[in-house]
Write a structure and sequence with these properties.
The structure holds 2 protein chains of 2 kinds.
Chain A lengths: L1 H29 L2 H32 L4 H7 L6
Helix pairs in contact in A: 1-2
Chain B lengths: L3 E2 L12 E2 L22 H20 L9 H21 L7 H17 L12 H23 L17 H43 L5 H37 L4
Parallel strand pairs in B: 1-2
Helix pairs in contact in B: 1-2, 1-3, 2-3, 2-6, 3-6, 4-5, 4-6, 5-6
The chains are: A mainly alpha, B mainly alpha.
Chain lengths: ~80, ~260
């Protein structure tokens, strides 16, 4: 479904963008320009991928375990890893 | 025949053909003059109409309280039941006390999207300024709620206790970034979907003037695309609401 793909794309891009923005803000504040920008952009990318995988898992459990969604709710608490 | 996409002024004169798909998103003052923060604009008008339409469905449509519902009451009850079940399923039984907020959001976004599909209407949700306010309200209220309910334990959302100790600070930064990315993706998704769809409809409509005898082909395409846009309008309202529920769940049960 298209909206699933769009949701993942925006999550990925938003993670990257927010990471880069936080990094740049820290750099301007502390005067260490390339350092935090690079580090936090990479971490932001990781965060974006992580959020994306999390919602992918969410769709997966919703599709597979549709009849037993009471169980799926409990099992979803260990999300992310 | 050359066509010009977006905003270029047409100087050729007689061909007089230019597609301006983004002009529909322009914020204009209703009674003329400059746009300031207090100026009533077309955004104000269409947001007021959105509130009116949603209220009309819920108050006037459901006024009969009949056992066998009328069409209006049926639609109102279906929307209510749909969102109620969503809140219960996604965010849990104890999230039901926040149902009025979630339902208000759903109705506002849904009606803003649907009213935007009326020809010559203004789509308020196509502006990031509008969706960002909605998304940041959700973000702040959910964060404050988490701290009120759980105190500092809410920060456990960022502290992954199942990971090795050496990795936890890095994971905490990653979790923090993904937490702050939420309102961004939350708002951009809605505004982007609405803006893109309306721009595409305008571009296709512009082709109708260019193709002469084959003018019906773009009109058919616009008709088909309009049906898709109707679907997108409802789905985006649904996605916005379900993400609100997911964030609410994290505030109510922050443990991993």
């Amino acid at each position: 479904m298209a909206q699933v793909g769009w949701r993942m794309v925006t999550e990925l891009v938003a993670g990257l963008g927010v990471g880069a923005m936080i990094g740049y803000g820290l750099d301007v504040w502390l005067g260490t320009l390339p350092l935090f920008l690079v580090v936090l952009t990479l971490l932001g990318f990781v965060a974006g991928v992580k959020t994306m995988l999390r919602s992918a898992r969410e769709f997966e459990t919703k599709d597979n375990a549709a009849p037993q969604d009471a169980d799926a709710d409990q099992g979803d608490n260990g999300r992310g890893r | 025949m050359r066509m010009r996409i977006k905003g270029t002024t047409d100087v050729a004169g007689e061909s007089g053909f230019a597609i301006k798909p983004m002009d529909q998103f322009e914020v204009k003052a209703l009674f003329g003059g400059d746009v300031s923060w207090y100026t009533p604009t077309n955004v104000t008008l269409w947001m007021a109409l959105t509130v009116l339409a949603a209220s009309a469905l819920m108050i006037y449509g459901a006024r009969g309280r009949a056992l066998v519902p009328s069409r209006g009451q049926s639609a109102a009850e279906m929307a209510y039941g749909f969102v109620y079940k969503m809140v219960e399923d996604v965010a849990g039984k104890d999230a039901v006390r926040f149902f009025p907020y979630v339902f208000t959001l759903f109705m506002f976004v849904l009606f803003a999207n649907l009213l935007g599909l009326i020809p010559f209407a203004f789509t308020t949700t196509s502006h990031i300024a509008v969706t960002a306010v909605l998304a940041f309200t959700v973000f702040f209220s959910v964060t404050v709620l988490g701290f009120i309910l759980h105190g500092t334990k809410f920060l456990g959302l960022f502290w992954v206790s199942s990971a090795p100790l050496a990795l936890r600070p890095i994971l905490a930064v990653i979790e923090l970034i993904s937490y702050f990315a939420r309102p961004v993706s939350h708002s951009i998704r809605l505004a982007g979907a609405m803006m893109a769809g309306h721009a595409v409809v305008k571009v296709f409509a512009g082709f109708a003037g260019a193709l002469g005898i084959f003018f019906f082909a773009p009109i058919l395409a616009v008709t088909a695309f309009y049906a898709l846009e109707l679907l997108v309008a409802v789905i985006q309202a649904y996605v916005f609401t379900i993400l609100t529920c997911v964030y609410l769940k994290d505030a109510l049960h922050p443990s991993h």
